[in-house]
């Protein structure tokens, strides 16, 4: 009888111990996705990271930023990327302090935004250059563009200037001799449009408008919007001369509020981007549509 009681007691104790272990293991899995001590330690460390919040266009800027998340985490920073699909909101968010930096624009556009909005945003580093391309709907070469054809270009100040310089580079229009990127030009400054119908439209709509246009239409498209539309420099009828001033003038920059250029988090962000591994990623991923500037 004593033996039976002892055996029953042992079974109860063993069952209780097993149930306790199961309950503990289930709780750990629901919190971290793993019952390992390493996962819990990693989660605790992540909570200690200082956040760097950067606004970016989806392609290629956010894609490039994704490449440095791990290296920044090793330096103690959690990179949060906020993707925007226009050219106004990321500067507004940077100016009001919602972002630590943004990465989507070149210096002429940044200067134009500051002048129009009374902001004081500055470039902290030049990261890459996106050659503007001239693309056609059913047009094989610049020589095949017919007189009277519609040419679509982006309408915002600096990109309109850039598009018009590309058209002038290809002999499609004539601009005043004194025209420059610093002072800017618009369609009103064209001396001779050679019979083309040049239409300035919102930059992010240019690829769609070209795709839906009549045969023979051509368009100057920003590098990132061309990539989003599946277009590449090898598809272009013409691209900006990379040996000229365009690469430096229109390099895409990390923009910050004036005075933040040398803060530890911004210096860490720039150091993480300006590496051989990021340069190789850009070369392999974009095949000349994006060119590293470091």
From TrEMBL:
Positions of transmembrane segments: none
Membrane topology: Lipid-anchor
Keyword list, A-Z: Lipoprotein, Membrane, Palmitate, Signal
Any Gene Ontology CC annotation: membrane
Location(s) in or outside the cell: Membrane
Residue numbers with lipid attached (S-diacylglycerol cysteine): 21
Family: Belongs to the nlpA lipoprotein family.
Protein name: Lipoprotein
Source organism: Flintibacter faecis
């Amino acid at each position: 009888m004593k033996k039976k009681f002892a055996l029953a007691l042992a079974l109860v104790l063993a069952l209780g111990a097993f149930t306790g272990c199961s309950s503990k293991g289930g709780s750990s899995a629901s919190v971290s996705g793993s019952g390992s001590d390493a996962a819990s330690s990693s989660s605790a460390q992540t909570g200690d990271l200082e956040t760097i919040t950067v606004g970016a266009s989806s392609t290629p800027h956010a894609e490039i930023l994704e490449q440095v998340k791990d290296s920044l985490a090793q330096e103690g920073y959690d990179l949060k990327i906020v993707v925007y699909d226009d050219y106004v909101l990321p500067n507004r968010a940077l100016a009001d302090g919602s972002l630590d930096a943004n990465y989507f624009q070149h210096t002429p556009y940044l200067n134009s935004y500051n002048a129009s909005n009374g902001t004081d945003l500055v470039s902290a580093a030049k990261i890459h250059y996106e050659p503007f391309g001239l693309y056609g709907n059913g047009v094989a070469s610049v020589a095949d563009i017919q007189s009277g054809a519609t040419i679509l270009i982006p309408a915002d100040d600096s990109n309109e200037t850039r598009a018009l310089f590309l058209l002038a580079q290809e002999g499609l229009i004539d601009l005043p001799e004194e025209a420059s990127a610093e002072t800017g030009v618009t369609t009103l400054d064209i001396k001779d449009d050679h019979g083309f119908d040049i239409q300035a439209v919102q930059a992010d709509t240019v690829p769609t408008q070209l795709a839906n246009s009549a045969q023979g239409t051509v368009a100057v498209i920003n590098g990132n919007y061309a990539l989003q539309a599946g277009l590449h420099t090898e598809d272009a009828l013409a691209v900006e001369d990379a040996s000229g001033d365009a690469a430096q003038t229109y390099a895409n920059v990390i923009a910050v509020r004036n005075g933040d250029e040398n803060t530890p988090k911004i210096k860490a962000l720039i150091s993480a981007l300006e590496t051989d591994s990021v340069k190789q990623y850009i070369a392999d991923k974009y095949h000349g549509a994006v060119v590293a500037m470091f």
